[in-house]
């Protein structure tokens, strides 16, 4: 699994921005644990740097999300829905995606019907068992003296 990372500095940015982007990409590739280790080491060596790193991690949402998957997800999403320039392949891809979406909706409808039929069968079984239990149990005796009953 590889991700395309542009290490080139944007126009108007110096080598420090290039270094920062490479370090950020390297840490992202190793996941949240690498960011946390770097933050702890920064707190140990010089606490303001650790605090700044913590603020950056919270601000960039690296602290509470899976940052290592962020670049992969965006690249995969672009390639899945982007135009490749090959019209035959794009037509094949569109047809295949449409077929898969149709099959998924048909399968979900099948599962829904299956659940409904299972629920109906269970409910019918419950009613039959209840009716059988009512037929087998003796009827409660009726009090003839219900008006003068004891309290």
What is the typical, i.e. mean, pLDDT? Answer: 76
Number of domains: 2
DSSP strand count: 0
- Give the strand content: under 5%
Given the C-alpha coordinates, what overall shape results?
A: flat
Major pleated sheet: none
Percent in helix: 55-70%
| Count of helix runs | 5
User: Uncertain spans, ≥5 residues at pLDDT below 50?
Assistant: 1-11
What features would you describe in this structure?
- By secondary structure, the chain is mostly helical.
- The chain has two domains: 15-76; 83-136.
- Helices cover 70% and strands 0% of the residues.
Offer a few descriptive terms:
single chain; mainly alpha; flat; 151 residues
Summarize the structure.
The protein has 151 residues and is mainly alpha-helical. It has 5 helices and no strands.
How do the helices and strands line up, and which of them pair or pack?
Layout: H1 15-30, H2 32-45, H3 47-59, H4 70-81, H5 87-136
Helix pairs in contact: 2-3
């Amino acid at each position: 699994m590889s991700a395309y990372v542009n290490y080139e500095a944007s126009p108007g940015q110096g080598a420090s921005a290039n270094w920062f982007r490479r370090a950020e990409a390297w840490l992202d590739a190793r996941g949240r644990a690498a960011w946390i280790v770097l933050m702890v080491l920064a707190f140990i060596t010089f606490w303001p740097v650790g605090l700044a790193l913590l603020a950056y991690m919270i601000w960039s949402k690296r602290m509470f999300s899976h940052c290592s998957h962020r670049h992969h997800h965006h690249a995969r999403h672009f390639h899945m829905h982007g135009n490749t320039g090959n019209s035959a392949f794009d037509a094949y891809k569109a047809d295949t995606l449409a077929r898969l979406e149709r099959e998924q909706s048909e399968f979900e409808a099948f599962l829904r019907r299956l659940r409904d039929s299972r629920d109906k069968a269970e409910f019918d079984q419950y009613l039959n068992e209840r009716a059988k239990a009512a037929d087998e149990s003796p009827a409660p005796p009726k009090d003839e003296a219900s008006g003068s009953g004891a309290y």
